[in-house]
## 1
Amino acid sequence: MTIFNLGSINADRFYTVPHLPKPGETLAATSYNVGLGGKGANQSIAAAKAGAKVIHMGAVGPDGDWAIAMLRAALVRTEHIIKTLIPTGHAIINVDPAGENAIVIFSSANTAQTEQAIDGALTGAQKGDYCILQNETNLVEYAANVAKAKSLKVIYSAAPFNLAAVRQMLPFIDILVLNEIESEQLVKGLGVSITKLPVKEVLITRGSRGSTYRAQNGTIKMPAFKVDPVDTTGAGDTFLGFFVAGLDLGKSIQEAMRFAAAAAAIQVTRKGTAAAIPDLVEVLDFLDRRAEE
């Protein structure tokens, strides 16, 4: 099977700060670096490192060759990434000593996706393939419509959270992915409990408190592995990439959640986003060691 991912590609600009800035406050960063990021790129790299076949649908600017090269190096297929005349998207990421972050993104080329490019990427898609979507690109609903027409399993991250966008996506979603804050925003916005959301399955990530999977036949809770975090940026993307790859590789929901939890646990002990995502050997070794504890 194949995982198709319509997702953002960003240059992540990291600033290490003594604490997250308050309104009106000017801080002096203690370090700075740039790396590949964006929810889409992170998810695609995570899924590919987990062993899945991944085709990325995205867009970069004239300055984006380095990003495509990094995706290819992670064995993500990039032939359906389009080049635009506007700059590649970027993110400004402040990280405090506890590894918590505050992020501002500038979408830029990520919102220059075309229907033609999406149609071309999904031409070879088959029933049972996966399509990952999120809110950092344009044409998300269009891609979902095409994917469902081809009987793909649509997995949608409601991030960055936008209630109107989620409402439009509800008819297409097989698995809705939310973090804890997004789940609270959605429940409030729709005026229903989390158990009454009009989707088949919901995956809620809760950071250091693990994750919860809700479906019509029950609920699965997966604790997070205890580690000392350095930078939590991209942990949710790493979790989702490994989770979908796990399903694609035939794992049960519970097995896929544990697989993903291990990958995220390793990722948060490193600085960066895409560059911090572990490979399959590292994750399996981590799981083996934790099973012995």
Note: Residues 253-267 form the longest helix (15 residues).
## 2
Amino acid sequence: MSTFIQLHLLTSYPPSNLNRDDLGRPKTAIMGGKTRLRVSSQSLKRAWRTSDIFSEAMKGHVGIRTKSMGIEVYNAFKEKGVADGKAKEWTKQIAAVFGKCKKANAAKPLEELEIEQLAHFSPEEKTSIFALVDKLASGAVAPTDSDLALLQKKHTATDIAMFGRMLASSPAYNTEAAVQVAHAITVHAVAVEDDYFTAVDDLNNGEEDLGAAHIGETEFASGLFYLYLCINRDLLIENLGGDQALANKALASLVETAAKVAPNGKQNSFASRAYASYILAEKGGQQPRSLSVAYLKPLRGEDILGKAITEIETKRANMEKTYGKCADTTKTMNAETGEGSLSDIISFVKE
């Protein structure tokens, strides 16, 4: 039976535009018949895995997502004196291991060395790729099937282990995600507002033109977000080749980044940085479940955070009454009352 770690976070953001839609407006969703602010799970996961906190803690165990690894490989071949034709052909053979290469484009001669979809490369795979480049360049021979097969490595990329990897053209490289992340959503209804702004030309002395040099408009909103994560601890350890110590380190980094890091959309305009005010962590082998239903009816009033904490704790208690224990053990951190701590939560998920 798998051990699941469930995290429930409440984080309040002031006026902001953390995650924009195709029109530049904050993303929203309808829940309980009311419009709520939303931050997508994709945006959250990228912000976490590229954050300074995660990068420093997991140094040497973080992958890179790109379509352009083939360009780097080609450049490496060229630096080693491999002829252009061979460099391109060998590069395409290596790139094809991770995805289908793009079609040739006369206007962009190197585009055919890129793959069509983003691929997530682990540090070990990147090392193997450039080791193969060295071997081929020194021997002046094309890669064999066995050479290319060696690129499939057991890896220790914690971001791949947590958030998964899917390569449609190379399913052998797929990794099932050990961490599921919900879209963060506000516990109350919201209205997206418009900010009309102007910019003044510092060298305009007003003698000829008193108007602004620039007029613009941007959208924003604020809210208290509920975020839910479900972690399959056993799968995480399996994805990392059984390295439990590394899995614990990854869990600690994930908890800290989820509590402290948000997408950086429009941060220079809004400085909307925030820490989680409340964290509920649950651990056990029971079927996981979100507690978003606690906010199906949007909260109202002045003490939204206090009400949100009461609602989630009440809903959890009622779930326990009707379904039985939904987790073996729990731990909470409440920055509103000063109870618990982030270090307590991190220790709990690592136990």
Note: The chain has a mean pLDDT of 92.
## 3
Amino acid sequence: MELEEAIAQHVADWNTAVVERDVLGTQVPAQIAGAFQRFCRQHLHAEAGDCLFYRSSVGCVAGLTLDDGRAVVVKAHQPGQREARLAACQRVQRSLHARGFPAPEPLVAPVPFGLGFAVAERYLHEGEVRDAHDRAVRRLLANGLHAIAASASPPERFRDLGGAWFTALGDRLWPRPHNAHFNFEQSAQGAEWIDALARRARAVPLAGELVVGHFDWRAEHVLVSQGRITTAYDWDSLHLEREPVVVGAVAHAFTARWDGVQPTVEPTPSLEEMRGFVADYESARGRDFDAAERKLLWSSCVYSTAYTARCEHSLASDGDWHPSYRTFGQLLREVGEELLGAPSM
């Protein structure tokens, strides 16, 4: 498929190009395609050919074949992403790749692109997305998350990654939403109960060691083949954060697959599955979290669930969002109070 056609189709599926506007300053598919083609010409020294895929969410991502035979992925980031942080993400990614971890090899360091920066990596697509409600897949994800933390050592080398939302917001409750589809201020009415749970979660004392954590480590971004992880994506989601914060954040949505306008499987885990993910991580870690770490872990899980519920609430406030699946808002109502009130769980 031609890149311009893929972009136009993606925009039509979502009925908007707000992410493209924020990243590139335009919503015109031909102009967006032209920017990616110039990037390939200038920084990969080849002409872009067929489009393997195109998506936009936090940034704009295109998988492309080149006329020299390579297949690459180019990701354009929003202006808020710092060059130093993106470079630190690539250092972790390159280190993991060199160790044999299935992270694609970085090809182009952050360079100015649109209103922010873009990077490029080799296209790696070995394996398939599996259902993380399956215990064996869940265990692979937990083991992989721990492998990232264990391999990126000493973590102090990666301070430019910065902390995650849970600890890096100061007095603010919420970050700027990751996607311009969501407006927390305009959709505040009716979300007071979500904010209250998030505020309680953020008040929990910090505990645990700093590690490098992948904060979008979920089924959609991890491909599996023959019982092992064979490809892992979305390496700009790395942060230097307390280990319990990492595990709690990932536990809230490791089952999610947003590989379409509607999820292809039930996106939310059950409470039992979240507990199982934490137990699998502790098994890979070789020791359990202590009481203070566990309290922080579940608070991070509640906060992350509340953030996703807030995004859903923003969509629902427009009046035409009617999901057919169990939402993160429903999950938060079911488990929020229990997780905040049970630190020894």
Note: Residues 314 and 320 are 11 Å apart (CA to CA).
## 4
Amino acid sequence: MTDRVSAAPLDWYPWQVDQWQQVSQMIQQKRLPHALIIGGVAGLGKLKFATKLAAALLCQQQIDNMACGACKSCKLLASNSHPDYKLMQPEEPSKAIVVDQVRKLQHAMATTAQQGGARVVVINGASDLNLNAANALLKQLEEPGDRSYFLLLHQWPQTLLPTVRSRCQLLNIDIPESTQALDWLQQQLPTEERSVDKTIKLLQLANGAPLRALQLHASRAHELRHQMLVQLTAVFRGKESAVDVAKIWHKQPLEQMLSWWVEWLNDLIKLKMTSNAQHLANPDIIKLLQAVDQRSNIIDIYALLERLTEQLNFIHLRRNLNTQLVCEQLLHQWYLLVRSGR
């Protein structure tokens, strides 16, 4: 290992450079914590960061605190067959990490490292641990064993049990500065879709997270957002019923839709409190916001915002929701909202 702290590898995302330099220095000084929470919003590449860090820890011939890519350990990891590397995540999308998965991990961690070096566990979704799984993991975090590392990925704004968080050191991957995010995202889009205006709108939809913006572009999320606004306006004007719109909404990616709705209500509150549209996060919907502003009161806006936030939390906690009923109730509350201020 050399004495200098390395810069981030060229194939890493540019907004992760500072965090990589931080962990690189820890590796060099042999003070990397045994349990590290890598936190941040969705769409910042936390799993890639954790995988690269795991590779560096497992590597037998580190170069500048990074994996060499050529030793036996690196080749095993590249072929997904490294015996001392474990990736734990929900077995199915939108499901929790259950206690049986943690028990299997405990059995594997009870043995000696087969390659004679470090052992690394990446938990892709620390917020997805159910209560029993999180409690079972605590013993491993308290007594990890020599050269054993746990890298827990935590996605804001999801909750993380305080008992888990208290046993780990936190490393946040921050949303990149707007120019950096814009430059990177433009390079990933087809040439004909690289206009500054389109790219900025994509980043706004993704709350500034470049990888999330790329996913939204691929799924044509702007069309879903437009459809959602049209339907909210129709319910607002009494031209569509909450029941009919709910039948459509519950089949859509509800978490994303409710997140957008929360943003719009926050903009509505800003508008109602200040009568100033200059600092809205979604200036393209100013006409709708102004129309609702004129026909609603602040108490009912906050009540709807609280209800939306509650439902988002239930989704994050993997609650079994009747999504069509949830949509009906929220849309009906929206319908009543714009009549309460009359």
Note: Residues 1-8 have pLDDT under 50 and may be disordered.
